[in-house]
Amino acid sequence: SVKVKGPAHKISLELDKKIMDANYFGPITLTKALLPNMISRRTGQIVLVNNIQGKFGIPFRTTFFFRKLTYGVHPVEVAEEVMRTVRRKKQEVFMANPIPKAAVYVRTFFPEFFFAVVACGVKEKLNVPEEG
């Protein structure tokens, strides 16, 4: 995948299109190439892997978001989980380390709190003075 970090108004539309070509149309193109054979064989599965950023939007994370491996899941763990998922024929699996996983649940069940925390980070990043 292709990743960019920055404010949306500073990312060119051309770069947005390149990212969509790689991250969106790439999997679609591959699927369309594989699908006829899967249909004729009457078997096959397509597995898409995405990052946690797809679960919620955060300011200054425009088209995609990159973190060091220490915040992510090791590729071997991902590969093992993909194989388990395929064997079990599960539709979706959510893998993440505890802090990012907690953020998704906080966003889901306590959205006002989540956005208040995010807003604090944005103010700090922009050096915006507190009101009052």
From TrEMBL:
Keywords annotated in UniProt: NAD, NADP, Oxidoreductase, Signal
GO biological process entries: intracellular calcium ion homeostasis
Gene3D superfamilies in the record: NAD(P)-binding Rossmann-like Domain
Pfam family name, one: adh_short
NAD keyword on record: yes
Record InterPro entries: NAD(P)-bd_dom_sf (IPR036291), SDR_fam (IPR002347), SDR_family_member_7C (IPR052148)
GO-annotated molecular function: oxidoreductase activity, acting on the CH-OH group of donors, NAD or NADP as acceptor
Organism superkingdom: Eukaryota
Family listed: Belongs to the short-chain dehydrogenases/reductases (SDR) family.
Protein name: Dehydrogenase/reductase SDR family member 7C
Species annotation: Pongo abelii (Sumatran orangutan)
